[in-house]
Each structure stands twice: as C-alpha cells, then as structure tokens.
Amino acid sequence: MNRPDDKKLMERCVKGDRRAFEALLVRYQKPVYNAAYRMLNNSEDARDVTQTVFLKVYENLDQYDPSHRFFSWIYRIAMNESINWLKKSSRQEALEHETADQGDGPEQLAGDAQLGEGMEAALMMIKSEYRAVIILKHVLGCSYIEISEALDIPEKKVKSRLFTGRQLLQERLTQQGLH
Amino acid sequence: MAIDPNIVELINADIDGEISPADKDTLAAMMAESPEARAMHAELSGLSSTLDELPDLDAPPYLIHTIMAQIPKPESQDRRGDFLRGLFAAPALRYAAMFAAGSVLTLSLVNSDQVSERAFSDVTGLVGTISSEVPVGPGIQTMQIDRTDVAGHITLRSSGPLLIVDFDLVSNGPIDIVASYSDQSVWFNGFAQLESPGASISAESGRISMKIDGKRRYALYLHNPGDRNVSINLRFMSDGEVVYDTDVQYAQPGQPG
C-alpha cells in the first residue's frame, strides 16, 4: 500500500498539516458516516454527527494515544457522539419504550417484504449498547479486540453484547415475521 | 433442550471468524451430536449475513469540504497564493466591502435595460443578491464539481441578453477562480452574492477573477447583447496551481453550442 498509514498522517496532523487531516477525512468519512447512520437511522443526523466527530478529532489531536489504532479512536468518538445525539434528541427513550411494547412489530412493518429493511428497523429497536457492537462488527468489520478498544470494554463483554444483541435482533425479526 | 454455553460461544466465534482451528474442530464435533446447535448455527449465520449485507452508504456530497471549511487554517496559509489581494486594494475593486456593509439589491437591478451599455473595465457594476423573483430561464448547463479542493455546482442560465453563471461551491481553502471568454462583444455586467459573504472579485475585459474560501453562493452576470454563442472557461486555482479547468457553453436557442 502506497498511502501513508494513519499513524503517520496523525503525526503530520499534530504538526498542523491540514492536508494530512484531509487525507484521514477522505479515508474515514464513509465508515464514520455509515456507523452514525446505523446508530441513528437518519441521514441528516448522521451527517451532523460525522461532522462533529471529525471536528472533535481535530480539536483533540493532542489527546490521541499513538499506542492505539487511529480507527479505534475515531470509532469510539463516533459511537459516543451518536449515543449522545440519541440522548439529546430523546429518541433513545422513545425507541426503548417502543422496544418494550411487544405488540408493535408485525403491524408496524407489515408490507416490508425485505429482510434488510426489517433488519434496519430491528436495529433501531435494540439498546444502543448492543447496536454499537453490532455496527462495529457487521458494518465496520471490526474484530473483537478492535471493538473492545473502540468501546473501551473487555473483550468478554464484546462477545456477550454481540450474542445478546443478535438474540434481540432475532426476536424483533421474528416478531415482524421476517425470520 | 438448552444448548451448552460453551457451544454457543464457539458458534458465535465461528460466525464472527474468530475461532481457532482447534476450536473449530471441537465445534464441528459438538454440532455433529446436536441438532439444536446446528439449528442455532444456521440461524445466526443467516442473521449475520443479513447484517453484513446492509447497504454501504456513501457519505453525503461535500461533507469533506464542509468539515475542512471549519478547520482553522494556519496563519501562513492565509498569506499564500493571494494574487488577487493586490487587485482588491484598488478603490474601484474594493467592493467586497459593499457585501459586508449588507448591500442588498435585487437582481432586477441587473436587468440589462437598466445598466449602462458600455462594457465595464472594472467591477463598478452592479452588486446584489440573487433574487428568486428574477425570471431566469432554466439552467442551460449544470455541472457538478467534486474535487478535494472545491466542490459544488455551477449552473449557466440566461435571462434575455444576460447570461448568469451561478456558483454554489464549497472550498476547503482559498481558491482563485478565473472566468475568461474571448468574445469581446460580451461584457461583465455584475456580481451577486447569496448566503455567506466573502467572495471577492476583479474584472477586466474578457477575464473575471474571483476568490472563495469556504462555502459560497454567488452569480456572475454577463451581457450578451447579440445573443451569441459564448464559451466561458473556468479555471480553479489553489496556491497558484490549477486544480480544475472546465468550460460552460451558451448556445443561442436552436443552434449548436
């Protein structure tokens, strides 16, 4: 690979090289946007969160620990910002309330023939802590250890959250008659 | 029958591609004995595949530029490649201040019937905002720019003898734009700015230079009294280097461009 690695780009960023920051932005705008979108299920919110994430990265360049992978750091910021966004917008509360309502699945999604759409809806019905590990695993392709780094939780907890999260998704899909 | 938690962990590890060869063998042996484990493996595999296949979305257009426009620039960068700065110092060209002062004229003032019939040798022409009431024709040509340095749309429209080049751009640093045309019967007729002020402009016969930095929406007006076919070259420069070069074409209705 000819392109500079993240660590080198970060070193240049810290020295004030805007081009290096732009290179990181080019590299990570898509995964960060996708992660935010899957956490929030709203493109405008995801765009705003993505902007906030990169601005936070820039503002906190001096706090980056080079012993960690850059993507773990930025994904952690992305997840935290998405969760904060949900809290601020009170959407999380509404979603969790919705999750507790066992009767809403099949009716709400009646007519949604596609499993993918059902999955998108189901993802929004589980708690953000489970959604975050599932997104890191399945949307961003992170390994257990990478998820552990990104969320700052033990690997064992990553596994248990993945397992529980999938179980909950399975239940939601079953309720919707999609699985 | 409940599945042994160890098998459940191995099934999940297998699906996630995080199982060691030894554990994979163990899992295979356990699954051979347990229809429940096989069913669970199949179910989780299907679920994982569905998750993996969720569409990969493209980031919104211009996101990079929007973010870069908010990143503070080092002091030295502001001083570089500023070839227009000297020109703006000239009193006749110092009308960027007019924007800052909030000069708001509607585009109707830019109607060619109300302006001098002489060609402007400088930019003492009209300044205003782009007004939605202006009866401009549909876009003759719209082009999208999506470069690292600058992104957005440029639309060429016509309104009677006026040609209007509408710029809706975001740059992540100072960009000099030079619009040039060779037809001497066409002359600069004004400049209007919408949304954030800050674009600067200078004009001389057949050549108009603008400078943008960040998000800008503005329009150039050219008087084309003979309704002639016009080609306008647009050159975008960053630090003196051409980063994008394109042409917009006006063709008299019914004629090829």
What does the model show?
The complex is a heterodimer of chains A (179) and B (257). Helix content of chain A is 75%, strand content 0%. Chain A is mainly α and 179 residues long. The longest helix of chain A has 23 residues, at 18-40. Residues 100-113 of chain A have low confidence and may be disordered. Chain B is α+β, with helices and mostly antiparallel strands. In chain B, 24% of the residues lie in helices and 34% in strands. Chain B is elongated and about 90 Å long. The A-B interface holds A 16, 18, 21-22, 25-26, 29-30, 33-34, 37-38, 43, 47, 50-51, 54-55, 58, 115-116, 119-120, 134, 137-139, 143-144, 159, 162-163, 166, 169-170, 173, 179 and B 8-9, 12-13, 16, 18, 43-44, 46-48, 50-60, 63-64, 66-68, 70-71, 73-74, 77, 148, 172-173.
Name its key features.
heterodimer, A: 179 residues, mainly alpha, 10 helices, 0% strand, B: 257 residues, alpha+beta, nine-stranded mixed beta sheet, 7 helices, 24% helix, elongated
Short description:
The complex is a heterodimer of chains A (179) and B (257). Chain A is mainly alpha-helical and 179 residues long. Helices cover 75% and strands 0% of the residues of chain A.
